[in-house]
Write a structure and sequence with these properties.
alpha+beta; signal; 6-stranded mixed β-sheet; Ser-Thr/Tyr_kinase_cat_dom; Phosphorylase Kinase, domain 1; Laminin; membrane; 5-stranded antiparallel β-sheet; glycoprotein; 4 domains
């Protein structure tokens, strides 16, 4: 072992040995069961002052010199600043039969005065009585006008099982009262008066009494059937009380043999609970005053300034401390009480102070602004689910600075989305993207938002709009998607009337959209809001299913979810009536999209106000939807395409779920329509 390592090790060992030697007698056991045992307490012969024995029984510290039938378990022992022992004492109880006669009981008496050492602390304990018809009292002190000097107790009563209330100890089922000083025994006395008989009520078969540390017990109705083996914490005051058969005060003790304040820097203090005295270290010293050299210098400079004030530099000295101003500063009095001020002339101090003040203020404001911005970014990141999403593999998370660079400070607005504006942007790899605002996220929506991001990231399909990343440092999270150059199907169908849409293109859009939804269903994902607004087209008119704000990922084995609400015009009536969203709900909504695709008419249409009702009517009466087809489709082969799509739409729009095809079947039927057209065209050309 190197010297460098050995010296600190030896020093720590020496300090530990010194600290131990200042609290207990040499060669004595320092603790038991995790409880420190400072002198005058001790374990084993010659290690304790008479009356202060601690018995260590299988690592359980037991208070010695008490009634041996009851073990008093020690929780803690202290010498200064308060001479005290915290112990656990069994409760007193008596139980009754149905006639109200006591049939078993436990008095749990502990005489703490066998060696004249302990008194039950009147300042830190109280007497508690539990029961539904009981009066309990305790007593202590030498004989006075009656058998004892002190009597105290209280009565508890309850009429029925509902009378007592949790937390209420004011006489109904529970009462409590302060105890007088001088008590040296916790013996309880239950009243023998017949009026206090307990008739064996099922909700209160026993009465209980105990002295307990204040603040350590709160009444519960269930305690009216308390475990009979229960113990409660109690605080004992102790003092040096007996010297040659008499208790001495500080006026007498120092001149008598056996005086216990033996440390050089110790003093005598009269006991406040019973006769006798205790020892303290004098001001400026700390430790154990009952041992020679037990009181050592207190380092005031290492303590909080509230305890030992100093407006300059603190210097520890034996038994006290000194305080001096820093170099270049002075005080009008003692720096312990008066501030230290610079020695510069007043004008120089003013000029320097103003200059420094302005500089510090500017710096502080700038620093505060920067810290505020960082804190705000961090708060937004956390509120928007950043702590959850940062661990999601494959999800790029952009900073606010990144997003400003991507969108060139939001210089090109593409329009307004459902929740806010949509901006065009460019990633570092030159990929064109659309940056969209999401709904404001709060603590109730974090789970919903992060679930949606995970759903979108999970989907990889040419007909699903790809999520490229997100920014979570803003007040409202921003989602970054691949760019769909031609906009939404709704815009093309209803706003760009001059844009020609061939029957084949409409069929391709239907096929791609169906494939995208079929893929979602295969991944146990329901869209929940299928409509032309949420079908985007790339520059090559490839459809992309978008906007999964209402989507929910199903748990394994689930077939439906109740968490989604969609647009009324496209909503499955079964879902509207039951609240249950299934894959067939998306099929219904897609059927509405097919009708808009072949008619180029909005879902709110005609005398009935519903495109769906109008189509159903003409199909039922004319067996064809030709009269509602888009007027720009005139070629007979194109009319046939729309006719087949219309028939498929009617299947999707059936009222019963079991009458509708699945989305995979819809996609397959659309592909067959296209194959039939190609085959028919090839045959015609031959």
């Amino acid at each position: 072992m190197s010297t460098t390592f050995l010296l600190p090790t030896l020093l720590l060992a020496a300090l530990a040995a010194t600290a131990t030697s200042l609290t207990l007698k040499p060669g004595c056991r320092p603790s038991c069961g995790g409880v420190d045992v400072p002198y005058p307490f001790g374990i084993g012969q010659g290690c304790f002052l008479p009356g202060f024995e601690i018995v260590c029984d299988n690592s359980r510290p037991i208070l010695g010199n008490t009634k041996q039938a009851i073990e008093v378990f020690v929780l803690s022992l202290s010498v200064t600043p308060r001479p005290e022992a915290r112990v656990m004492v069994p409760i007193t109880w008596q139980c009754f039969n149905s006639s109200g006669d006591a049939i078993k009981w436990s008095i749990s008496t502990v005489n703490y005065n066998r060696a004249g050492v302990y008194r039950i602390s009147n300042n830190h304990n109280e007497l508690v009585v539990l029961g539904c018809n009981t009066f309990v009292y305790t007593n202590g002190g030498p004989r006075g006008r009656s058998t004892y000097t002190y009597y105290t107790g209280c009565a508890a009563y309850c009429d029925n099982a509902q009378s007592a209330r949790d937390g209420d100890c004011t006489g109904v089922g529970c009462c409590h009262v302060d105890i007088p000083p001088g008590l040296s025994d916790n013996k309880m006395r239950f009243s023998g008066d017949p009026d206090w008989k307990n008739p064996g009520m099922p909700f209160s078969l026993c009465d209980y009494a105990f002295i307990v540390e204040k603040g350590n017990y709160t009444f519960q109705k269930a305690d009216l059937k308390m475990d009979l083996e229960t113990s409660k914490p109690l605080r004992l005051d102790w003092a040096i009380r007996v010297n040659n058969g008499s208790s001495l005060s500080c006026a007498e003790a120092p001149s008598m043999p056996g005086y216990m304040c033996v440390s050089q820097h110790s003093e005598c203090v009269d006991s406040t609970n019973g006769p006798g005295y205790v020892c303290n270290c004098t001001e400026g010293y700390e430790g154990n005053p009952y041992l020679h050299k037990g009181c050592t210098n207190l380092n005031e400079c290492a303590r909080p300034r509230e305890e030992y004030p100093c407006n300059g530099v603190c210097y520890d000295i034996d038994g006290s401390y000194d305080c001096k101003c820093h170099l270049g500063y002075e005080s009008s009095g003692d720096p312990k009480e008066n501030p230290c001020n610079p020695k510069f002339p007043l004008p120089a101090r003013i000029a320097l102070g103003i200059g420094l003040g302005v500089s510090i203020l500017v710096f502080a404001l700038l620093l505060a602004f920067i810290m505020h911005q960082k804190r705000k970014l961090a708060e937004h990141f956390e509120m928007n689910g950043g702590n959850i999403l940062k661990s999601v593999i494959g999800l790029p998370i952009f900073t606010e600075k990144d997003l400003k660079k991507i969108t060139k400070n939001n210089s090109e607005c593409l329009g307004n989305g459902y929740f806010g504006k949509v901006y065009k942007g460019t990633l570092p790899d030159e990929a064109i993207v659309a940056v969209k605002s999401f709904i404001k996220v709060d603590k109730d929506r974090i789970g919903e938002f992060t679930e949606e991001v995970k759903i979108q990231l999970k989907m990889k399909h040419p007909n699903i709009l790809k999520l490229m990343g997100c920014c979570l440092q803003l007040d409202v999270p921003m989602l970054v998607y691949e760019f769909a150059a031609e906009g939404s199907l709704r815009d093309i169908l209803h706003w760009k009337q001059n844009q020609k849409l061939s029957a084949e293109l409409r069929l391709d859009i239907a096929i791609g959209s169906a494939n995208g939804l079929s893929y979602m269903h295969s991944e146990d994902i329901r869209h929940g809001d299928v409509k032309p607004d949420n079908i985007l087209l790339s520059d090559k008119s490839i459809p992309k299913i978008a906007d999964f704000g209402l989507s929910k990922l199903l748990n394994p084995g689930e077939k439906f979810t109740k968490k989604v609400i969609g647009c009324q015009g496209y909503m499955d009536p079964v879902f509207r009536n039951t609240g249950i969203l299934t894959s067939k709900s998306d099929v219904y909504s897609f059927g509405v999209v097919l009708l808009e695709l072949i008619s180029r008419k909005k879902v709110e249409y005609g005398e009935s106000g519903s495109l769906i009702i109008e189509f159903r009517h003409i199909y039922e009466t004319k067996k064809s939807g030709r009269s509602l087809f888009d007027e720009e489709i005139v070629a007979e082969k194109d009319i046939l395409i729309l006719e087949e799509i219309g028939k498929l739409a009617m299947q999707c729009l059936k009222e019963r779920l079991d009458g509708r095809p699945g989305m995979k079947e819809v996609a397959e039927q659309l592909v067959k329509i296209k194959e039939n057209i190609v085959h028919t065209t090839a045959t015609t050309l031959r």
